[in-house]
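---------- Forwarded message ----------

FYI, see the histidine kinase record below. Original note from H. follows.
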Amino acid sequence: MLNKNRDVSKKILYGWLLFLTLGIVLTWLTSHWVGVSTALELRQVAKERLSLYQGTLTGALEKYRYLPFVLSGNEDIKQLLTTSRSDPYFSNTVSRSLSATNNKAESNVLYVMDNKGNTLASSNWKDINSFVGHNYSFRPYFLDAMQGKEGRFFAIGIASGIPGFYMSHPVYEKEGIVGVVIVKVNLAPLQRQWRDGGETVFISDENSVIFLSSRDDWLYKTLNPITSERMKQIKSVRQYGNSSLEQLTYKSAKFAGEKIIEINKRKYLETTWIITNQRWNLHYLFPVDLIKERQRTTIAIGSVLLITIFVAALFIRERRQKQISSRRALESEKIQAINQQLEVEIVERRRTEKELRSAQDGLVQAGKLAALGQMSAAIAHEINQPIAAMRTFVASARLLLQKGKIEELDISLQNVTSLTERMGAITGQLKTFARKAPSKLEHVEIMQAISRAIALVQPLLDSGNVVLTIMPPKHLLFVEGDEVRLEQVFINLLRNAIDAMEHIDKKRLEIFVEEKDSNVVIRVRDNGTGLNDTVINQLYDPFFTTKINNEGLGLGLSITYGIVKDLTGHIEATNNAVGGAEFLITFPSSNKPTD
């Protein structure tokens, strides 16, 4: 009784531990779901904000896109680029015109370069950092315009040191492109709007360099390492001036089922918008603090619920303890009685199984003896031939001995020896076949068992003029069983096939062996009369036979079925499409035994 109480206490303890474990897991899963839900919500908000930011950026740039195109058709600019390059007065006149246009359009700088990259006129011609006289032929926006394309390029100004977005357009004359008109747009006001909004947003170029950001300390830093080749190209066009382009402490991670990034030891939920026409990436970052806060709240609520349920359950358990104890005592007595009954049934089942196995072994032995009786006539004929030949060779040996022909005598004696070995093989097969099967299973090479069975029915094959075709496997296949019972299976199938072809002129018997899906598959196929549906349904019933004149007992296939099932195999009978029957036997494949 004391042990039972201890068992009950352990079960209760384990139950509470399981409850607490499930409660903790459920709380964690709920917290995780809240995190995922919050992350998805923030992701949707981020997409909406990115769409707005992308529209604002595109509008700020497209606002000035027309200027280079319009100015490329200005006659004064064309004259400056063709006939008045060396005229300072005319250059100043064009610069004043550009300055007025620049003030009206509210752009940063407007300037004109010839086809060599020299700046001939600029809206900032009076400033200390005037572009006039500088050569910017190495800038990509100039090179693109000289190829007849619209140039677009973000860079830090070489003369002014002010970053901006450059847009260019070629100036055409009869002789071709004579120069380029460029507008520089200052995106600093856009950055201030981002910064004043209190949100974390930035743009990186195709080299992962951050060139616009609401965080000033992130400007001109990279998200990923830049190869030396790309760094050399950036330096050659002086895109970011003397900036060192250091890499941010940037790495990716997973949080609440979402991809997050960690920059300078702070984690953000990142959403990216690709600006395809510029090959830029617009990044919007949400700190994960909001997600963590909601998760912490969920965990706190879950913990309070668990504690409340635990206290309430303890109170209820205290009131019902006596009732539960008495009920369990009664249940324990019932269980003990059931266990005793089960033990009696188990003993009875084992005895029954032992009797059934003994009966099956007796049936197998009876079947083998019946097979021996049917094969005796054919085997006697098989033995009579070597006996007659031995008589002839012995008589010949006597004559050769009288004549002193010792060499020829040795040949006759070798022939006699071969005949005796053949007779010994026949009788040895019968002796092996007649013995009882061992009770212990072992690894059996399947082709060896088939070969022994064929050797036993060979006289029947010869007397019936049966053409036997064997398709062996590519390598040795082993099954778990005993060779004697496996031989019985194949002998029964071969004899049935021979009987089924009794009235067929050209008898063909085929045996296929292969390995398929870790199983050994054997097919025994004949071209006999085949099987109808009624026969297939009763094929494995004891004492059922289709033979007439009491030629069979109807036990062969029943014994075969029992042996195959006992060796964890499967047997199936079907009809061939071209006529005849086919038996498909499957055994689990066994590894080759080691020495």
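H. also flagged this: Residues 144 and 511 are 79 Å apart (CA to CA).
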